[in-house]
């Protein structure tokens, strides 16, 4: 029967027998999946594992610090951070098509990662394995082993190049998110990491509807930070699956503020409730919380003059807008 303790013991054994004395590398995204996968592999093979955190410039406020400081403190994992923001922003310049954005981000991610891996391999005498925090729903949605068509090209599964030189270690491949959280707690990871809401690999890049640039990212990052702060203060984090915050960068609407007319962008709130992200319903957040969020975003984020609520279930909507 399923307990986190059993899974942990079983996976640690399995990882040891597959990896042996070889070196392993793992990309940390800031999310719970890669955090738990890496902690599990670290438990199994210790410092044979080196983690790489690619800052692609599409992260939310405070995320890099949380990985570099809190996660490293909790696990003792060896971490290399690569700041690749300029490279990603350059590659994304002018691109508006969602799948093209995803492919570019996936490609740049792999390139950056492989360059970091090459450096680590040179220092370590070779790296054979790559850890991925792939979950069961990712496998299903990417058509891996089920015969279903790809719905979106999730870059942690479908975007890997054919000539990838690593062998994959995917210790979470049969698990759902709630099981991964229990496993993370069993591994001693702090609640802020284990209970963190999902965040897509392509990051804020697929939450800007329109082309991605530094200014738009700063706008979305500021709005997103307000949403997260207010939701945590209201104590609703545990009730919802996640709340994407989306910037409609190519849409403007007329508003009025102080004495003047404004012509700014809308921010979309997409709070959803779900068991496994395969289906979802829009979360009935308290109106006074929504009012506080709206008031703060329009008051504090200069480019935004309107906040709208997405009341679509999945299906027919996906959770993310791209
Ligand atoms: P959708 O938008 O397909 O999202 O309903 C389902 C869940 O997956 C997350 N998501 C991603 N996670 N890489 C990831 O690691 C991705 O490319 C990606 N795209 C979507 C999304 O946040 C939601 O939890």
Report what the structure shows.
With 322 residues, the chain is α/β, with parallel strands linked by helices. The protein has 2 domains: 4-194, HUPs (Rossmann fold, 3-Layer(aba) Sandwich), CATH 3.40.50.620; 207-309, GMP Synthetase, Chain A, domain 3 (2-Layer Sandwich), CATH 3.30.300. The chain is built from 10 helices and 12 strands. A 5-stranded parallel sheet has the order 3-2-1-4-5, with helices on both faces. Strands 6, 7, 8, 9 and 12 form a 5-stranded mixed sheet that branches. Helix 9 packs antiparallel against helix 10 (287-300). The longest helix has 27 residues, at 98-124. The two termini are 38 Å apart. The site of xanthosine-5'-monophosphate has 14 residues, from loops.
According to CATH, what is the class of the largest domain? Alpha Beta
* Span between termini: 38 Å
Write out the CATH superfamily name of the largest domain. Answer: HUPs
Bound chemical compounds: xanthosine-5'-monophosphate
Q: Count of helices?
A: 10
Q: Estimate percent helicity.
A: 40-55%
Instruction: Output the radius of gyration.
Output: 20 Å
Q: Order of strands side by side in the largest beta sheet?
A: 3-2-1-4-5
Uncertain runs: 145-150
- Overall shape: globular
Binned strand content: 15-25%
Query: What characterizes the major β-sheet?
Result: 5 strands, parallel
Oligomeric description of these chains: single chain
Q: SSE order in H/E notation?
A: HEHEHEHHEHEHHEHEEEEEHE
Quote the CATH topology of the largest domain: Rossmann fold
**How many domain modules?**
2
According to DSSP, the number of beta strands is: 12
Structural class: alpha/beta
